[in-house]
Amino acid sequence: MSKMAEEKQAAAGVAEHQHQQQLAAGDSAAARVRPVETLLRAAPLGLCVAAMAIMLRDKQSNDFGTVAYSDLGGFKYLVIANGLCAAYSLCSAFYTAVPRPTTLSRSWIVFLLDQVFTYLILAAGAASAELLYLAYNGDKEVTWSEACGVFGSFCHQARTSVVITFASVVCFVLLSLVSSYRLFSSYEAPVPLGNKGVEIAAYPR
Prior knowledge:
Belongs to the Casparian strip membrane proteins (CASP) family. Its main location: membrane. By secondary structure, the protein is mainly alpha-helical. It is 72% helix and 7% strand. It contains four helices and four strands.
């Protein structure tokens, strides 16, 4: 019994040593990629602010009337989504720039926030793109005529804002891939517990 206990204790010590080595290697790798990830997280800030500013100034008046972004719910959602994503981009860039130990809980939080804001800005871009499609082409089935022939400047400015929004979507997708890789690559192979064949995944706390 004592020999078996010693073997288990020795095995546990080796596993703990390997675990510490993996954590050290992970922190070293994180330190090398931190500047790149910080720049990647800061990139959507400028894009979101630019898309929001262009849409906020989108208004046109002529003999047929006046149209502004605030007249369309999809464009208002685009402004709000870009504002929220710009704020998150700034906060996450500061968070990434400051060196700190990588933990499972922090990795989960960053992963979930990246997912939320990626889908938020993607939904805003998709909704605005649909509005632009109807504005350029109309909908014959419901007798909606196209509006961009009359309000061309308004449509052009809205299109520019939507294109910039989709550029920020690309950045957020890349961030989601980075955070998901960091989270799920932190898991180790399952290790057996005792002789009952029960296995659990070991990961850093």
